[in-house]
Amino acid sequence: HGRRSIDVLKIIAPEKANWDYIKHMEGLLPKNYGDDAVEIPGARSLLSSLTAASHPWAIVTSGTSPLVTGWLNVLQLPIPEHLVVAEDVPNGKPDP
Fold it and tell me: Which pTM value belongs to this model?
């Protein structure tokens, strides 16, 4: 879907549309469901190749920082130097 949780909650549950609540709830997903996580084939080798060649890489996501770093930690993948998450931008998709 790509929409930020805060944007969805503003519509369906405005009382829960705050970053503290959303970051807490999204942060629980990797903790509670990490055993079900499956790595995208080729992701680890791609990141290793980029790092070995000193090529910069980043993640830009509609998820929160606890969500993305939680999944990266569960999968034991590196956290990029540049990470843009939902709470970093004033407007989510489809805003450019």
Answer: 0.90
